[in-house]
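User: Is it possible to get a 3D structure for a protein together with its bound compound? The compound here is dihydroflavine-adenine dinucleotide. I've pasted both below.
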Amino acid sequence: MGYREHETYDVVGVGFGPSNLSLAVALNEHRANARGHGISATFFERQPAFGWHRNMLLPSATMQISFLKDLVTFRDPTSSFSFIAYLHASGRLPQFANNQDFFPTREEFHRYLEWAQARVAHSITYGSEVMSIRIPHGANPKSAGHLEIEVQDVTGRGARVINARNVVISTGLVPNMPDGAERDERVWHSSEFLEKYRRMNPGELRRLAVVGAGQSAAEITRFLYDELPHAEVWAIIPSYGYSVADDTPFANQIFDPSAVDDYYYGTEQTREAFWRYHRNTNYSVVDDEVIRDLYRRAYDDEVRGTERLHFLNLTRLSGVKRAGAETRVSLQAGLDGDVYDLDVDALVCATGYEAMEPTGLLGDLDRYCLRDETGRYRVERDYRITTSPELPCGLYLQGGTEHTHGLTSSLLSNIAVRSGEIADSIIASRAKRGVDQAVPVEVGHDGG
Ligand code: FDA
Ligand code: NAP
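Assistant: Yes, that's possible. Here is the predicted structure of the complex:
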């Protein structure tokens, strides 16, 4: 258990993916330098143990950012929580260097994240879902000075309430299913892929379809083709073919820490230009290597006359009918929009995600949160939601800020710097309140 009853924490973190892990590390490092004046923090995660998109840990899937964009390096290259420190601790630094590759596998990066979270484990409670964030019952938000966070044990062992002066919400992307498709045991979103796939008898899977032309779709299509040599796989692609993710050096600058300022302080036209010119660095695009792998497989099959990988281009899924083991997929093809059906044993919708949406968690608190003319949250440069003056507590977002802070909002590229900025903001606001006396430190002790 990573918290103490009846304490009012400086920070409660909701969700413990890489973003809040990076924040826990930043606060841990602040504590080490603060000589008893550290920030008290505790984090709640609904998964039973640390997991970073576990259902997409496909063999040979690689990271889409350099290993240097780890939890800490861009904020503090001397931190002992870097990917290089992990490699050193694992005895693999020379081998990694010999590999001459900036992009580790997702599996290796996952191991790094697990290693880092183990070193701040005292501040994390797994198997705990945050249900709501609220003002204490009957209290005046200004005088209460803290918020209540209602946490539910996912194994059904009841709920508890934790008090905090600041809350950092980092609950991650929300899976998007296409209209007309409902998830069940044979219709899967990519975010649940491996879990659902492993429940099936592979021999039963002879015809599969994968919807989408993004990285998830391409990786899953390759995986199914390789794992199921007896199966036919249909890739349902809305474009004419997969498009490559632009990770060339000039385009990559949009993920630099300084690009956050350019976006945040830019005009509406500047922000629009970021999206118009650079959406293809991340959305509906695929790494060059995976595109070439897929093309090679299809070509080799054609040479042998054994085609079993079918690319249905300019095609969108428009509906799914399910009955028992039967799954009938309606597809809308080509520019004239002809609709036809395809029968499959399983359908994977690799149809992307919606941005993080904290409104449900905020409940009544939402009325203190200011919104812009299009209804989106106003967010300060330090990632704090702009609130009306009656609410002195801080509500920070890690994710869900693409409209204010740009493309790195949902990615790993900037988490080291962003977490440092949030930590600095919380430390500064505590100093402003004059609460600079020693407070109990709950951020985990470095056991590494
Ligand atoms: P993340 O989604 O990782 O974590 C949120 C956590 O909050 C989850 O563990 C969830 O269980 C928990 N949670 C949600 N609601 C809760 C609640 N109410 N109470 C308690 N816990 C709750 N980006 C990149 O820059 N490079 C890359 O290589 C990749 N690779 C990649 C692969 C795949 C398969 C996907 C789908 C996405 C990526 N991404 C990526 C983008 C991805 O958003 C990013 O890697 C991180 O997951 C962002 O970390 P977060 O901690 O913000 O969210
Ligand atoms: P994505 O890039 O948003 O792609 C979703 C795809 O689904 C798009 O091609 C979209 O087409 C398509 N689509 C949506 N509805 C459809 C419909 N009804 N019919 C046909 N196609 C439909 O999502 P993603 O691939 O899951 O990627 C999300 C994030 O995860 C990205 O940041 C990506 O880099 C990351 N990721 C990383 C890795 C890795 O690190 N190895 C692996 C997987 C994912 P439109 O463009 O027409 O909407």
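The first helix runs from residue 18 to 34. The chain has three domains: 8-173+355-433, 175-245+283-351, 249-281.
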